[in-house]
Design brief:
Layout lengths: L2 H12 L5 H12 L7 E8 L4 E9 L3 E9 L2 H13 L2 E4 L6 H10 L8 E10 L2 E11 L6 H9 L1 H38 L12 H9 L7 E4 L6 H11 L7 E5 L8 H6 L16 H4 L4 E5 L6 H13 L1 E2 L8 E2 L3 E6 L3 H6 L5 H7 L2 E4 L10 H15 L14 H5 L5 H15 L28 H15 L10 H5 L3 H11 L8
Parallel strand pairs: 7-12, 7-13, 8-9, 9-12
Antiparallel strand pairs: 1-2, 1-6, 2-3, 4-5, 5-6, 10-11
Length: 509
């Protein structure tokens, strides 16, 4: 193949894909037919910091996406600028004799092998400025001839153009991701403005709201405690909304919903090849929350190993990805929440005491609904309007006289979440008439116990309640108007609970 034909083929390979990185890969394989070539590096020059950033490493068997910085010392910077004026390609016959190449090879480590290298460095010009270089490497000494240099010089400008397009594409992708994150944040803000207010802020939850106000301009770790369904996440949302970090990301993590084997990867990220299936680098939740807040819901569900790593993050304000060796500094505020009794877990050695003290700098306990029943009428009004909007009802349902009385008599073991579910069931049942709760929950008032002798086992109370709902649903479990829909649970979940407490649902089919 003569030079003209080779040049034409090289241009064809470079432009064979809309993705510049694919085109550079095709050129890599073509060049291997003409010159010794084992490794290609893409480096970007940062004149402000006088450094070279390694972005990509391509070997015969793999591609590594990197972001490593190699500083240019003062004497090296002068030499580097000199050879840039002398020609577009620099030949190095023995990399171990060049100070910059020595540090470059040390940075790459095991990725390209330990043997000495021969190098051709192609300077990249874009818009009449030097943006970086492509470094071609071959194992061994003095592998490149003047003829090899001429071949690479011939391709210097096309490579620079395609590389500039590749960098522009990466910048565009980064900007697009930034816009998506900003839109997500603005959407959350709009939802907050549209009605995610705290019901009871001026009455039953007044003390909690006052504590939140104290946290507006500090970055202290916060531990929110309270029973299931009291609204711990709403309090975390309010803290973020009123804090100095409200413009930053707000990353939520349910620690109880992530398998133990993946918790480290989810929280702290992982490097490519860190474990089976890690085909690419993954940014962890803590890094995503940099400059903002991370909300660790159900913190009591974290395994001990993850607790140890979390403690280190809180102490040092940096993370290490799984399989990585670098410490990545972060600026992330931590809000944790749990319904578990952490002091008892500490005694049982299932929760670290030092992590508890780190998180418990400013504790907030959200009281259960039975301790602020004065907020129930306002909550009922709020949920009726919310559900009517969600269900696209033409008219907001009204309440029958005295409808709220049974709700005020109930003890609410499921708290606000249970109240919301009961209101939704009532709206489904009483579509054409004012909403009532006495028929839907006939055993509510009997659940209020005044003496120890009146206390019933939980399974007995649950059994009575399920039987009453089955009576309303005429024995139907699944489908529209079935007991599962009325109770707000999956039919299989209800069947398992009925099996456990001895309700024979098969006879009811």
């Amino acid at each position: 193949m003569n030079q003209l034909a080779f040049f034409q083929e090289a241009i064809f390979q470079l432009t064979s894909s809309q993705n510049p990185e694919v085109g550079i890969g095709h050129l890599f394989r073509l060049l291997q037919q003409k010159i010794p070539l084992d490794t290609v590096l893409l480096q970007i020059y940062d004149p402000g910091l006088s450094t070279m950033r390694i972005l990509r490493v391509r070997t015969q068997s793999d591609i590594f996406k990197m972001d490593k910085v190699v500083p240019l010392h003062a004497n090296e910077l002068g030499d580097w600028k000199t050879w840039l004026r002398e020609g577009s390609v620099r030949r190095i016959d023995q990399a171990s004799k060049d100070l910059f190449m020595v540090r470059l090879l040390e940075t790459l480590g095991m990725k390209i092998g330990a043997s000495d290298k021969s190098c051709l460095i192609v300077q990249l010009h874009a818009e009449q400025t030097v943006t970086g270089n492509i470094c071609l490497m071959a194992d061994g000494l003095s592998r490149y001839t003047d003829g090899h240099v001429e071949i690479v010089k011939m391709l210097a400008n096309p490579i620079a153009i395609v590389t500039h397009l590749y960098l522009s594409l990466q910048k565009q992708i980064k900007m697009t991701k930034s816009v998506i994150e900003e839109n997500r944040f603005l959407s959350n803000e709009l939802r907050s403005v549209a009605g995610e207010d705290i019901i009871g802020a001026d009455s039953g939850l007044k003390d909690v709201i006052q504590m939140v106000e104290h946290l507006a301009n500090v970055d202290t770790p916060i531990l929110i405690t309270g029973e299931t369904g009291v609204g711990k996440e709403l309090i975390a949302n309010l803290i973020q909304k009123t804090s100095s970090r409200r413009q930053g990301p707000f990353v939520k993590v349910n620690c109880g919903a992530i398998p133990d084997s993946l918790i480290d990867s989810e929280l702290f990220g992982h490097e490519r090849g860190a474990f089976t299936g890690a085909v690419a680098r993954k940014i962890g939740r803590f890094e995503r929350a940099d400059g903002g807040t991370i909300f660790l819901d159900e913190i009591g569900e974290l395994p001990l190993q993850a607790q140890t790593r979390l403690l280190r993050v809180l102490q040092n304000q940096n993370v290490e990805r799984v399989g990585g060796v670098e410490s990545i500094p972060i600026d992330t505020r931590v809000i944790a929440a749990t319904h578990r009794d952490l002091p008892k877990m500490i005694q049982a050695e299932t929760f670290r005491e030092d992590l508890y003290f780190r998180l418990n700098v400013f504790p907030i306990n959200v009281p259960p609904l039975r301790y602020h029943k004065q907020d129930i009428p306002a909550l009922v009004h709020h949920f009726i309007h919310k559900k009517a909007n969600t269900m696209n009802l033409p008219v907001v349902p009204s309440l029958a006289p005295g409808a709220v009385d049974p709700l005020l008599a109930y003890d609410w073991p499921g708290n606000v979440r249970e109240l919301e579910n009961i209101i939704e069931r009532a709206i489904i049942l009483y579509r054409a008439t004012p909403i009532r709760f006495d028929f839907l929950l006939p055993s509510m008032s009997s659940c209020v116990c005044t003496t120890i002798d009146e206390i019933k086992p939980l399974d007995v109370v649950v059994r009575q309640h399920i039987l009453s709902v089955l009576k309303v649903a005429r024995g139907k479990i699944s489908g529209p108007g079935g007991a599962a829909e009325l109770l707000g649970v999956h039919p299989n979940t209800l069947r398992k609970r009925m099996d456990k407490i001895g309700i024979c649902y098969k006879k009811r089919r």
